[in-house]
Structures are given as C-alpha cells and as structure tokens.
C-alpha cells in the first residue's frame, strides 16, 4: 500500500560545497541517498518535497556541515494479506519468484493451484495447467502476500496464488495500477 | 493438510523423570508453548557444603509445536530414563520450504525462538539449497530428496544425464582488452579473421566495460548435440549478470540451459564449486566439465577436466579472482609465433595448452595469492582492478607488437603475424568423451535392469494364482542407477594404465603426486613418481627443462621414453594413449655428452678388475629406485621373485605375451627392458648372497646407493604408501621381464641394437660400463659430487 509520509533525515555536506547553493546540494544528496531505498518496513518510492532544511551545523573534527531535512515522500509498504501484481523472474520446482516493484516475492508450489503443475520438460521450464495458463519468467501474476520479512535495506515476501482471481494474468493490460506498473 | 511430526523430549530435562499427568487427549488442538504434560523428578539439593538432600520437584512440559495431537508415545506414570519421543502431532504446516527464515508455505517467521523450541529450531527444518538462482530458498531434506528423485526419474525416462558446464576457459574465453575491438574494426589486421568471430557485451556494474567473448570452436554444435544426451547446467564463478550475458550469447533462445544457471552469487563458497549445491542428494547422474579441477574438491570423480581454452593469448580467466589462485604449474609453453611454434612437434591440438602467463599476469597472480583469504568484496574490487589493468595494459597489443619486433630484430621480411589462432579442437574430443560416458552409463543401467528382471522372474511360484499387478515399468528404476563417477573412473583408468611417469619442470615445488597434473595422470591410471628410476616408463619434460638433471638420468637409463609435456596433456585431453613418436624430446646432445663422460670414466677406470655383475652396475650413478628404504624393497622384491620363479616359471611366458599385447609394441620393449635390468640384478645379487661369494661387493655398493640417490634430494620423501604401491606395481613387470630373459637368454643390453626406440643410447660407453670394477666405485664418488652439484644448481634454477 502506498502512503504519503513525513520524515526527517540528517544530511552532511563537505566544506568544499559550502556556497549559496548549499541547500540545493543538500536536497540533491537527500534524493540520491533516500529515493529507492528500503528502510526495513517500507520502500521510499519518491520524495515529493522538502519542507524544512535546518541551519547547517559544523561537525567537530571533520568540518562537515550537518543539515536536518524534513521531507515528504511516497512510501510503499507491502502488507500481509495485500494483493499485488508482479512479474515472474524465475521459476523452479519449488515455486516461482516474482518481482513486485522493488519487492522480491516467492510463491511456493504448495500455494499454486493443484492443476497448475511444474513442467520441467517445457522450454523454458514453467508452471502450467496444460491449457491457457503457463507461468514462465516474464509472466504477469497477481499474488496475495502471505508474509513479509525485512532486514535493513532488503525485504522479501511469501505469496499465494491459490485463491480465486489470483494467478497468471492473461493480458498485461489487465494489470491495474499495481506496484509492478508503477515501478517499471 | 496433515504432516505428522514426532516431537522429542530433548536433553534438558532432569532424567529420569516420571510422567505424572497427560493434559491432552489425542485429537486435541495444541498451541505452541501450551503445557501438554506434567512430570516430576528427584534431584539433590546441597544443604550445606558436602551435604545433599534428595528432593522431588514437579514441572510442566510445554509443547514446542502446534497442531493436533495424534498420539502419545508416553503413558501416565511412566518413568522416562532418557530423551525419547513423547508425542506425534499433526501440524498444519511442516515449514519445509523456507525463504529467508520465513516459511514459504504459511509465511510464519522461523527465527522465533522460545524456551520450548530452543532445542529444535524451526529454521533447521529446512536447510537444503535446491534452487539455482537463489540462496534464500531452502527446503527440508525430505523435499530435496523427493525433488531430486523425481528429477532423476525424468532424466532416466528421457535417457539423459546432467551436465554441469563451466563457462570461462571451458566453453568460452572472455577478455576486456579493447585491442580486440580495434582489430575487429580493421580488416587489414592479421588477427582480423580470428577476432571477427568474437562477440561483445557490456555490464553496467563494471562501468560499461566491454567484454569480448570468443566461443570455443564448434560450441553451438557441441551444445546442441550434447543437450540430446545431457541436461545442461551452468556453474560459473562469474557474477550473475556476466553469466546471463554469456548464456544469452551461447544459448540465445534459452533452450539449452533454461534457468539452470548458478553463479558465484549463489554458489555458497568463494573458492570452491560443489555439486551438492545443485544436487544435494545424489550426484550419481552428474558429469562436470571444467578447465580447473582444483575448484571441485569434493566432486573430482564426476569431473571431466578440459584443456583450458585460451583464445586471447596471455589473458587468463577473468573471473579467477574468486577461485583459489591457479596453480600455474600449468605447463609453460613458448608463445606461438615466428619461431616459437616450431618447438612443438606435436599435432595441432598442442595449441590448446594454456599459454604462459606473461609477466603482467604473474604480478596479478601474486596479488591473488596475497588476498586469497580476504573477503569476497575485496576480491570483487581486485577483479575490477585486474580488469582495469587489462584495459590499460592491453596485453594483446603488446604481444602482437613484440611478435613483429622479434622479426625485425632478426632482419626477416616483415610478414603478417597472427597472434590469435582459432584452431582449438578440444570440444570434439570432449563430445566423444561425453558420448562414451552416456553410453556406458545407460549400458550399465540397462544391464542391471535386465539382471533384475531375470532375477525376479523365478520368484513367481508355479502354481500361484494371485494375479500380480503388472509392474508399470516406465524404464525407470532409481535403485539401479549406476554412479557416473565410477563409470568415468573406469573409462579413464585404462588410458595410461601400467605407465609410470616422472616429470621434469612441470611441477614447481611440492610432490608431483599432489600436483594438478600428477593427480590427473593418476586419475588416468598412470603411476606418478618423483624420481627417475628404472621403473619409470616415461619422463615428461617441459620445454624449459630439456636439459635438466632428470633428463640426463633418464638418458642414462635408456629404457625411459623422454617425451614433451604436450604428450601427457594430449593424452589426458583425448583419453587415449597417444603414440609417443611425435612427442619425443631431442636428447641427442645430452646423449653425446653422456657418452663422452662415460668414455672418460671408462678410461679412468680401465685398470679395474672386471667382476661379475653387481646390482645396478650398468647404472653409472647408482640411480636405481633405491633410497634409504631400499633394502626392504629389495628384500621384498627378492622374496617375491623367489616365490614366483619356483612356482610359476613355466607359465610366465604365456602371461607375458598376454600382457604385451596391450599398449604399443615399442613401449613393451622399453618397459620390459627396464625391468629386465632391475630384475636381473636383483636375481644376481640374490644368487650372490646364496653362494656366500662376493657378498661384500654388493653390500658395499648398496651402502653407496643412498648417497647417489641424494643427488635428487627427494628420495627419502617417498611415503610408505607410495613405496608399497611401487612394490605392488613392480610385480607384474618383474614377472614379465623375467620371462623375457628366459626367452632371450640375454642380459639387459642385448636388446639395444635391435630396438627402434629413438631414446636408447647405445653408445660405446655402455660396454665399458659393464666392465667397471670395484675401483670405479670410488671414482663414482667424485662423479656423485658433480651430480649433486648439478642437481643443486638445477633445483636453484627452478625456483
């Protein structure tokens, strides 16, 4: 789910950048450091604006200036139970991995409907029901998140397609404004 | 869902415990950390120092698992003396597939640890890595097994095996030298033709470096044909994106490798590759092709070592920073060039040898040695540095310039020099090997199945009325799968069987048995020894050591074939024992020197009393395979001889003939003559001891021998094991040669005139040599000194 969130961050600036444009440099640094990062529970998708840049404070010893910047950013946090769209990146006998925007998600073969089976003989290997559904790298899938786990700078999730209206999407246009499209 | 888990009590209880009350009935739901039974135990409380009082305590037992209770394995009132399972519980989720410590089936966090679960962690329930492209995903042993068995069944029904393919220098050669691009753009360049077949890609993570990739000649056909027999996997120490780019080049439509790519990111080890990473349960059906065998420490039996593909001369494996530093005893070879290529009389495949690392590369090598133990990240940086260096140094350009310069210096007409040649033929041989292995595997498998079937047939009782369910024989029976490692071993072992090989200049420091080339030769059935002795059949010589002490010794022992290293390399590559005649090292000058020296010796010792042959007297330096341990050797050898000559003497002629039929004619000549001498001398020495006559003379020479041996300075290093092997190996040849003696009725030197070997040194010196007397032994000491000095210098030169 997407949120607009107010946050704060301390940005340091090297003395050689002390000039009248220092604030722009601070914002540049902030954008570079923060956008696209994962803070454990959520991804910072985009910084909307910065609303407060403090006075610079010289750090003793290094001469660097430290600014405290308040900013507003769009963040995305995947929740347990949320349904998301993703793109399959790899398949294996255990299940398949899909990329939901920045989030790596795994769907175990136990959580794939029973009629969709692993077919190692197909090229490329795929999950298929031998009719209209086949899940190969590149397929679009709709997945329900069963659990997420996060570590600093990284998140991953477990998903299921063993429910109604989940699974391979026949047509890319069917994908609604999910994370997958936004991020790509 | 119903997976029954049997829960154990664990070791933390104060055994023996008495179960006082079971709180749950079968069928009840149990939550995690819920108390499931109560128990009591007695223990000693220390009241004051040295005084104990027995007390009984009551405690609750919490369940580490949640689910539905199926069955109690304990009873109320039971005294449990040791840890044992106490209940079977039906779990909603067995947590047997986990992704990053999260159950992939239910999404539960597996790292949760509490008092009850401390002994059986949930994370331990799945610890087998099964997936090529992800390390986070682990499964339980049971799942790994069932997956692998089903994969094996599938392969068996398709009559395929698995083949793990290395990329760098095995099927492709990559470099980042931008010279390649320049040559490619310039049709007038002599290397244009070779270079224009390369392909290029860039990687963003290495700052848009352009990688030039040359596929090994015939690669696409090779892969297409091999993929009929094998399911292909890629296992490389390159990065994921590098591997994917390469695979996109060699397998553009992803039909060959599919997603079966494993790279250093997922390998799990920085220095070694392991089949267990992809095939955790059974490697019975897996063959590996790789140019480095040292990176497969645990899977050597499954490995087919290929000759490294070095298209861009002087540039090694660009991903080798992640491997242990290449033991580049790997066969120095003169650069093919205007005058360099003539040095190798071998067939065209000799170009397949790895080129010597040029100086720049050696520096890199030293650096690699240095940070061998450091972390992956540093290695990555190192690699980047190396790549950068390669970009800056442009080794190819330099080499080309050098080639041309060399020519100018010699005042020759400037002509077009082709640095890069595209004549590698390794894949052809490799495909044959793979076909052989595949054939042998399925032949054995079919045979076993037939045996099983015919063995089962009589089990039907004649009057049995019960109709057996017809076994749905799908051509698959996992219990009969042979081990491909054994098959490979069998195929290889016969190649160089019976040969005893010593080397000169191939292995720098350390024992040749443990060196890469030595281990390979051993895998192909040859026996590898350090010393030049009469027992050895071949001395393999590097081009830089054609005049080494070992070669001199071998020249003296005329039976030894002195061949260039390319013979061994080609044999190992083609899995055939090649005819040595194309590989003989020219030792004429050495032989002349030797003859000269012997003549001088002869003059010095001309006054000597001629006496009967003593052991090894035709060996001027006493360089038999006798060291400090030799007395025992001789002893055993003699015993053996005694026994054999008494009992089977008559049969020996026939056995000899049989044995001789293997291998080429010339070889048997050589080897049998070698052991002729050996045998004859020991026979005679025995005769001497029996008669009580001339006993002192042999014993005297014997004492000298060790010192003579020390010229090489390696003799006493031979292990007991190696010695035993040696003795064992010398047996058949001893028998054989004895029979030959009987046949010919001649001494060791008699055959020399008739032989067509290019190596023998039938020069005047030998005759004198036979007549050498006791005094000459004293003379030998001077000679020994000289030899020792020479050997010492030799050794110094090596390092």
From TrEMBL, chain A:
The S1 motif domain, residue ranges: 81-162
Pfam families: S1, SHS2_Rpb7-N
GO CC annotations, alphabetized: P-body; RNA polymerase II, core complex
Entry's Gene Ontology BP terms: positive regulation of nuclear-transcribed mRNA poly(A) tail shortening; positive regulation of translational initiation; transcription initiation at RNA polymerase II promoter
Alphabetical list of InterPro entries matching this protein: NA-bd_OB-fold, RNA_pol_Rpb7-like_N_sf, Rpb7-like, Rpb7-like_N, S1_domain
A GO term for molecular function: single-stranded DNA binding
PROSITE patterns to which the protein is assigned, alphabetical: S1 (PS50126)
Subcellular location(s) of the protein: Nucleus
UniProt keyword terms in alphabetical order: DNA-directed RNA polymerase, Nucleus, Transcription
Function: DNA-dependent RNA polymerase which catalyzes the transcription of DNA into RNA using the four ribonucleoside triphosphates as substrates.
Recorded family membership: Belongs to the eukaryotic RPB7/RPC8 RNA polymerase subunit family.
Entry protein name: DNA-directed RNA polymerase subunit
The organism of origin for this protein: Emericellopsis atlantica
TrEMBL record, chain B:
Catalytic function, reaction form: O-phospho-L-seryl-[protein] + H2O = L-seryl-[protein] + phosphate; O-phospho-L-threonyl-[protein] + H2O = L-threonyl-[protein] + phosphate
GO molecular function per UniProt: RNA polymerase II CTD heptapeptide repeat phosphatase activity
Stretches the record annotates as Disordered: 337-358, 375-395, 448-475, 590-769
Location within or outside the cell: Nucleus
Lineage: Eukaryota, Fungi, Dikarya, Ascomycota, Pezizomycotina
Keywords in alphabetical order: Hydrolase, Nucleus
Comp. bias (Acidic residues): 615-635, 643-669
All residue ranges annotated as the FCP1 homology domain in the record: 156-330
Domain BRCT as annotated: residue spans: 491-585
Basic and acidic residues biased stretches: 461-471
Free-text function comment from the UniProt entry: This promotes the activity of RNA polymerase II.
Ranges annotated as biased composition (Low complexity): 337-354
Enzyme Commission code(s) on record: 3.1.3.16
Domain of life, per lineage: Eukaryota
Listed Polar residues bias regions: 684-699
Protein name, UniProt field: RNA polymerase II subunit A C-terminal domain phosphatase
PROSITE patterns: BRCT, FCP1
Keyword Lyase (UniProt): no
């Amino acid at each position: 789910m997407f949120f607009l969130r107010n946050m704060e961050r301390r940005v340091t600036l090297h003395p050689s950048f002390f000039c009248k444009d220092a604030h722009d440099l601070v914002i540049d640094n902030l954008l570079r450091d923060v956008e696209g990062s994962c803070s454990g529970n959520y991804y910072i998708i985009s910084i909307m604006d910065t609303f407060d840049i403090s006075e610079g404070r010289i750090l003793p010893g290094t001469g660097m200036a430290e600014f405290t910047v308040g900013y507003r950013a769009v963040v995305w946090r995947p929740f347990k139970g949320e349904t998301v769209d993703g793109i399959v990146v790899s398949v294996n006998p255990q299940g398949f991995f899909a990329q939901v925007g920045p989030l790596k998600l795994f769907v175990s073969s136990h959580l794939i409907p029973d009629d969709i089976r692993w077919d190692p003989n197909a090229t490329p290997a795929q999950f298929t029901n031998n009719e209209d559904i086949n899940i190969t790298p590149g397929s679009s899938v709709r997945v329900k998140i069963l659990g997420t786990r996060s570590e600093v700078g990284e998140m991953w999730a477990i998903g299921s397609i063993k429910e109604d209206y989940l699974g391979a999407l026949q047509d890319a246009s069917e994908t609604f404004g999910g994370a997958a499209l936004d991020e790509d | 869902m119903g997976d029954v888990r049997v829960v154990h009590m664990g070791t933390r209880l104060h055994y023996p415990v008495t179960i006082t009350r079971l709180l749950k009935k079968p069928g009840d739901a149990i939550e995690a950390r819920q108390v499931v039974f109560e128990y009591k135990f007695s223990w000693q409380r220390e009241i004051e120092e040295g005084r104990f009082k027995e007390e009984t305590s009551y405690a609750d037992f919490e369940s580490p698992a949640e689910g539905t209770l199926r069955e109690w394995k304990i009873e109320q009132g039971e005294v449990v003396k040791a840890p044992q399972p106490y209940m079977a519980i039906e779990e909603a989720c067995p947590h047997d597939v986990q992704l990053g410590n999260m159950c992939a089936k239910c999404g539960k966090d597996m790292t949760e640890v509490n008092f009850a679960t401390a002994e059986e962690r949930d994370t331990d329930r799945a610890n087998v890595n099964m997936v090529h492209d992800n390390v986070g995903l682990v499964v339980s042993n049971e799942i790994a097994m069932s997956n692998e068995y089903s994969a094996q069944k599938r392969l068996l029904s398709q009559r395929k095996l698995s083949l793990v393919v290395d990329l760098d220098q095995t099927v492709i050669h990559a470099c980042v030298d931008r010279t390649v691009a320049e040559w490619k753009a310039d049709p007038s360049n002599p290397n244009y033709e070779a270079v224009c077949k390369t392909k290029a890609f860039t990687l963003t993570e290495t700052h848009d470096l352009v990688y030039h990739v040359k596929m090994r000649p015939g690669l696409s056909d090779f892969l297409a044909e091999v993929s009929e027999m094998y399911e292909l996997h890629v296992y490389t120490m390159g990065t994921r994106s590098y591997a994917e780019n390469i695979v996109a080049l060699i397998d553009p439509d992803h039909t060959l490798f599919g997603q079966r790519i494993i790279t250093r990111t997922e390998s799990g080890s920085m220095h070694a590759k392991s089949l267990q990473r992809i095939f955790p349960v059974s490697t019975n059906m897996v063959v590996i092709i790789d140019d480095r065998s040292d990176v497969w420490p645990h899977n050597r039996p499954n490995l087919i070592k290929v000759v490294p593909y070095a298209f861009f001369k002087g540039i090694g494996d660009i991903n080798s920073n992640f491997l242990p530093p290449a033991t580049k005893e790997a066969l120095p070879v003169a650069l093919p060039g205007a005058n360099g290529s003539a040095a190798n009389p071998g067939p065209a495949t000799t170009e397949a040898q790895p080129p010597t690392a040029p100086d720049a590369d050696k520096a890199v090598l030293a650096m690699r040695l240095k940070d061998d133990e450091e972390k992956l990240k540093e290695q990555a940086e190192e690699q980047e540095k190396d790549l950068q260096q390669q970009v800056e140094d442009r080794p190819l350009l330099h080499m080309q310039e050098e080639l041309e310069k060399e020519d100018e210096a010699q005042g020759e007409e400037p002509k077009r020099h082709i640095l890069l040649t595209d004549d590698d033929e390794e894949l052809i041989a490799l495909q044959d090997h793979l076909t052989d292995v595949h054939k042998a595997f399925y032949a054995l498998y079919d045979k076993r199945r037939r045996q099983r079937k015919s063995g089962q047939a009589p089990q039907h009782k004649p009057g049995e009325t019960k109709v057996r369910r017809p076994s749905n024989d799908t051509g698959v029976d996992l219990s009969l799968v042979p081990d491909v490692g054994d098959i490979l071993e069998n195929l290889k072992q016969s190649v160089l069987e019976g040969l005893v090989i010593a080397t000169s200049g191939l292995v720098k420091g350390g024992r040749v048995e443990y060196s890469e080339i030595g281990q390979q030769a051993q895998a192909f059935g040859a026996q590898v020894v350090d010393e030049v002795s009469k027992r050895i059949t071949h001395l393999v010589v590097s081009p830089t050591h054609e005049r080494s002490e070992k070669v001199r010794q071998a020249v003296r022992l005329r039976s030894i074939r002195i061949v260039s290293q390319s013979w061994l390399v080609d044999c190992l590559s083609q899995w055939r024992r090649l005819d040595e005649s194309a590989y003989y090292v020219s030792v004429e000058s050495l032989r002349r020197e030797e003859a000269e020296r012997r003549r001088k010796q002869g003059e010095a010792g001309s006054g000597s009393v001629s006496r009967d042959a003593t052991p090894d007297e035709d060996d001027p330096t006493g360089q038999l395979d006798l060291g400090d341990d030799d007395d025992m050797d001789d002893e055993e050898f003699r015993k053996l001889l005694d026994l054999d000559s008494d009992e089977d003497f008559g049969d020996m002629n026939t056995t000899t003939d049989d044995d001789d039929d293997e291998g080429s004619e010339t070889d048997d000549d050589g080897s049998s003559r070698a052991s002729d001498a050996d045998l004859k001398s020991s026979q005679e020495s025995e005769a001497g001891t029996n008669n009580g006559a001339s006993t002192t003379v042999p014993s005297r020479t014997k004492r000298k021998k060790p010192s003579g041996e020390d010229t090489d300075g390696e003799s006493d290093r031979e292990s007991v094991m190696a010695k035993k092997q040696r003795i064992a190996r010398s047996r058949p040849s001893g028998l054989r040669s004895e029979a030959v003696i009987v046949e010919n009725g001649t001494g060791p030197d008699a055959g020399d005139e008739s032989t067509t070997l290019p190596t023998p040194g039938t020069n005047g010196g030998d005759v004198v040599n036979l007549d050498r007397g006791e005094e000459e032994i004293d003379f030998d000491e001077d000679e020994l000194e000289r030899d020792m000095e020479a050997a010492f210098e030799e050794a110094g030169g090596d390092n």
